[in-house]
Amino acid sequence: MAVDNREIARYNERITVQKNETVTDKLRNRSCVWKDYYPCWAYCSTYQYDEEGGSENSKATTKPEQTITFEVRWCEELKNIDSTHYRVVFNGDIYNIISVDGMNHQKKKIRFRSKLEKQAVKS
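User: That's the sequence. What structure does it adopt?
Assistant: Structure tokens below.
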């Protein structure tokens, strides 16, 4: 199978997929922590999403929700990704995964529709 360099070149942003894991300390207390799971290159498509469907004028005083779609090349590490146990870190910002699209199970690409949870402090 020939590789199209234009297709590879679009994956130009570095992201880290994090996994939610339960850890036990020496006192046997359990807690959930986010650990880096898999760094990869992604294509990021940014757009503003308004869940309530309001017009621009009616939402003038509220901040719109930032949603990004991350598209990555399919790999074994990401084949079982879901929206409850994984999240994405991009440019220091943390994004919760809203939905996962396996692109018709063709094992070529995976898309994560993600919502900004926490923005990194920019200096």
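The chain has one helix and six strands.
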